[in-house]
Fold these 4 entries.
Entry 1:
Amino acid sequence: MNNGMEYSDLGLSWADRMLVWAVPPLLGAVVGWFLPAIADWATGQAWVPFQGPLELITAIQGPWIVIVTAVLGLLAGMVLSHIAIKESLAVRLSDKEITLRIREAERTFAREEVSAVFLDGKQLVLLGTEGQELYREKPEAKRDAVAEAFKRHGYSWRDQDPFAEEYIRWVADSPELTPAMNALFLAREKAMENEDKEDAADLRRELSKLGITVRDDGKKQYWRQHGLRP
């Protein structure tokens, strides 16, 4: 066991971050440099879309145009790099707590709050003392590295969901659920059909407040009740 002050970080490695920051801007600059030539060729091809913007690019004359488009491509690549870093999950854990950060949102769970940890497909899942789902998000680190880190800090790592056999598939107006719960499931089904991940996640949290944990299999929703310790 560690002394509680030693941390393990799970996320993009230094090398990964360098690649993320270097590759998109470089590609953007290269594409931007050749964009005037590409636009000049494409305007003569009827099947190529966006003829209007392409004609606008070709209408601008001067040797400086390639510099401008290269700089714009570089900036666009930097924006993509920033988004990629922002959208990646960073996990820091010690013997005492787990801190998870993504999209500028950070959450910390004390060790005693977490009863089990496992990977559900590619998503890291933390369970609470009543079997409720505390957190779910895709980590950047490899599966073996994630498992080894949680085991090293003394958390109850599971190779699979300890409640995998408890889930029931949701169907409209499920008699085991209240009308309010069924309404939330129906709204969540529509959110998933519209690929609104943020709304689906919010509705998952609302169901958790009512004592229901949700697990997805494609567009199918499965549920189980809280109240069991893994």
Entry 2:
Amino acid sequence: MAHIKPSDYLALVFAQQRRQQVQRMLACGADWLHIDIMDGHFVPNIVMGAPILKCVHEQLPDAFMDCHMMVTHPQQRKVRISSKLTLGDPLETVRIIKASNMRASLAINPGTPADAIPKELADAVDMILIMTVWPGAGGQKFIKECMPKVAQLRAHYPDLDVEVDGGVGPNTIDACAHAGANVIVAGTAVFKDPNPESVITFLRERCEESQVRIRNEREQFLKGEKIAYTGILSIACACVYIGSFASLHTPISTRKLRVEADQDPNEDENQSELQSLSSDGAWAFPLIGSAVLFSLFLAFKYLNKELINLLIATYFTVIGLVTIPTALQHVIVFFYDRNFVKREKKKYLELKVDCNWVDKTKPEEAQEKNGIDTKADMYTFAMLAFSVVLLGTHLYTKLWVSANTIALCFALQGITLIGLDSFTTGFILLGGLFFYDIFWVFGSTHLVGTSVMVDVATKFDAPIKILFPKNVEEIATSLLEHGLTDLPKLKFALLGLGDIVIPGVFVALALHFDQKHASESTPGLFFTRYYYKFAKPYFTACFVAYVLGLVTTITVMHVFHAAQPALLYLSPACSLSVVLVAFVRGELKELFQFSDKTIEPFSGKVEKKE
């Protein structure tokens, strides 16, 4: 609803005892009476003290009065209407005002940013007044630079009354209404016009038209947000699910049976690139991550941003040429052909490169052997070609779809390559990153004045996050109406890859634990890394906990309109889920004693019972 309020001329009106003029304004359609109370200190003027205010109320008991207290020490002033009101601490003042059966409002000067208003105070008041002139003399020029503050408040608090006061009239109402103001204070524009009713009607119509537009845009935006969050949730969960199964290895019990059957125990394994994370590494992970994150923050702050992103793009392009084909292979195996990896390759290119450090103090048989030994067939070359096209497209267009595809490949490969050796390591990792995420999202603002995590995430131009547009419907409507011209700018919801990979490796560990249980209870050569038909109580609980944790993150982010550290919700959810299942099943001791041996190459030695 739009509210139109005649302003400061009330002082002159009542000084001349022209009560009929005020009644005329109300009859012309004014909703409220806006009354300024000035003390000569906060502003140089002295207008409308408590006695006049009381007189106004007695003469017009049914009129709604909006009192703007422009005083230096409001806590020392008392306004008596129907009850005693003492102004003091803002939140306490709001409580007292509302206890006196009145609405509470907050006013900010043109130089005060909207961000300076604490959220708890904005939630407590009924209205926020944005001054569009400096408090004091009337007839000042409208300050249009205040309009972004109005738009910001309207976006963050859609149901809050947002008021503008100062220089508002027929020539400036469109800017106010378009920004989202629904309470308009107009003094000179109304009282000096020979036909105030037409001015009030015009102001109200323009304001109400914009309110309808803003409501429609918000409904459209909320629908787009739901689509974006659903898309991000689906992508992240699919990546964790597929990555968990792709991380499986042939159980130890099956490898022992292969040895007994004179078969290669590691025939379907490629563990040369696996990175096993121990508890020592888990402790160091948040520290290393913090050092890297803060270094990037400083680099973006003091060095050339374009040069940094160029180096990052080069690095990720090279890494992508290796990562994307392997990640695509996991997807093919999961959805299409589980024999894809071990299919006999009749023609292939074999590459062997030795790269060893020679220690002359050790005999030759004790020398550490490193290097590259890989085979590439036509499928590998096809996926490599796809990778080149994908990376080239992304470098040229920076499309969010290509960025997401590359990012998902990195995430999928991260889940499959990083193996936790035990649940103890997993708990340490999630616990450490729990505090890491909270500090760099929230705590860093107290040190450097901004959220380091958010700052780096928005400046880091690389596929390390999942993006999904929040204004899909707006873009679609614009395409239908205007084609490719004047397309609205995309507004994205995002989720960092760390919020997929870190919980993902823990969910994968839960699946490994389920696999160990099942393979030991029903051993057989059929139980390979691609055999998925076994009971998965720990994986199911942990995966559901991940989904619920992500939903909670998105919900809190939507409600508070602020970036959230996802691991604040994901770490406890995933950790507690497996502990709860182990407690119910009476397997807590086994859970903490579990050591994932499948992530290590099998020696091929089997102790035979006599």
Entry 3:
Amino acid sequence: MGKKYLIPLDGSDHSKYSLLWAFENLINPNIDSVLLLSVGVLSAGTPCEYSAVTRNILNGDNEIDLERQKAEEKAKEIVNDGKLIVKNLLKTQELPIECFVSSNSDPGRYIVNLSREQKIDVLVMGHRGTSSPDATNTGTVAQHCMHSAGCTVVITRKK
């Protein structure tokens, strides 16, 4: 039995690079399994964004529900793009890929919890290599996962 990999995707070039990097350097398609995850993320009062920002749902407005639905639809698109990348990489091989899509207020915590629930061996994720002043105080999703996940964490950075 091979290893179980979790690769969170946010639609950025950095997360796509982490997916490609994992297949080039770590994943053995003959024995390993892969879980792709995208967390659609909202920030209250701002347009829908799908990067590592925190979403605060203040109430159950229809408008908020609509934004959540849009975030989940975007997350599904991102996961489907990831599946297509894997299919093109492997060409002839079939690899079992599980996909998870969520809209969650804390992507880092969600990723860590999913990695524990699914008994992930290796978490591979991209990092932009920059952080805002707020991220210096609160940390990035990658930092949270690196310090909190109960598995090996590989953080890639596109040059």
Entry 4:
Amino acid sequence: MGEQKKNNITLKVGGMSCASCVAHIEEALKDLKGVSRAQVNLAAQKTYVEYDPA
């Protein structure tokens, strides 16, 4: 079988103010079908998401 192709996207996310915000966003994104990785950067107000588009 072939290797699965994964896409990634960086999203600007405003309004975060603490580590709890980061944890909630990461958990919510990881619960979405196809998302294999979600990493939130509080200081940069950005979120990196790796996902399978299929």
